[in-house]
Amino acid sequence: MLYRKLGSSDLVVSEIAIGTWLTTSGGVEKDKAIACVKRALALGINFIDTANVYGRGASEHVLAEALAGVPRDSYVLATKLYFPMSDTDCGLSRVQVHKQIDASLARLKVDHVDLYQCHRYDADTPLEETMAALSEVVRAGKARYLGFSEWPADRIAEAMAMAGVEHFVSSQPQYSMLWRKPEAEVIPFCRTHGISQIVWSPLAQGVLTGKYHPGAAIPADSRAGNDTMNKDFRENWLEPGVLSAVEALRPLASEAGLNLAQFALAWVLREANVASAIVGASRPEQLDENVVASGAQVDAALFETADRILAAATAVEF
Q: Burial letters for 257-288: b for 16+ Cβ neighbours within 10 Å, e otherwise?
């Protein structure tokens, strides 16, 4: 496992991170979820990403159990706030920032998180209020650094220009060979302002693992085939043209000495502004495969060919 510095912080994170949206929030049986977290740590994955809304607190509770007895300074722990935790608790107001960090710390059974992230932008709360409250959390020692997920570039710039507040060190966008929108504005801005990317869905919801085939039935044990996990699945990624293009990447991955998922993860990590790629897991052995992507040496020409294949055959945005 290789590691990268997270933005302008002093945090050093593994190139592969374990995400908990599906793993520890109820999508996977608790004993298997805990086994995945423990396997991640054994493989050198030191970066764990969660959120208060995952399972409405369930993910943080399970993580606390999985991390019991693990030295606190041996892993980097990130959580988020924004989405509704009740009919009245949501957003990034000062009240919610303080209420939700305290609730997350209690569930996680830690005295601080390393990274506290705004899960989305809150248009209903003045940005000055949000940044002031987040800064209070950092100065109180409850979070070491701040990040955001899926914020528009103009709002990122506005926050970074504020004086007297703690600034962001991380961005968490969706980014993969099939979803390249961050390359237009977010990555260029972050690259010059000390902000690293922590990308989610680097395998395009599992499509880039090659488990879905043109004209074939959706596997019952896959995310797309699981009614509890496919609510936000991008159906257009299951179109024959997309799946055929993904299949055409297999020889390229093989030439690089990788399987398709490893090739897709290595593609994401080719971008120096990406500090870590978040992967989910329902079985520990999936992590064994994913970590091979860390440090993989891939000829840039193979990635260029892959880009051409996807651009010609899909609606992927560059």
A: ebbbbbbbbbbbbebebbbbbbbbbbebebbe
Model-wide pTM > 0.85: yes
Look at the domain 3-210+269-297 and name its fold: TIM Barrel (3.20.20)
Question: Could you read off the pLDDT of 178-226 as tens digits, one per residue?
Answer: 999 999 999 999 999 999 999 999 999 999 999 887 765 566 555 544 4
- Active-site entry in 3, 54, 116, 175: 54
The residues spanned by each domain of the chain are 3-210+269-297
- Write the burial class of residue 193 (CB in 10 Å: 0-12 exposed, 13-18 middle, 19+ buried): middle
Task: Give per-residue pLDDT as tens, 21-62.
Answer: 988 888 889 999 999 999 999 999 999 999 999 999 999 999
Structure tokens at 174: 């969706």
Beta bridge partners of 17: 278
Catalytic site residue 82?
Answer: no
Chain centroid to Cα 265, Å, comes to 12
- Report how far Cα 301 is from the mean position of its chain's Cα atoms: 27
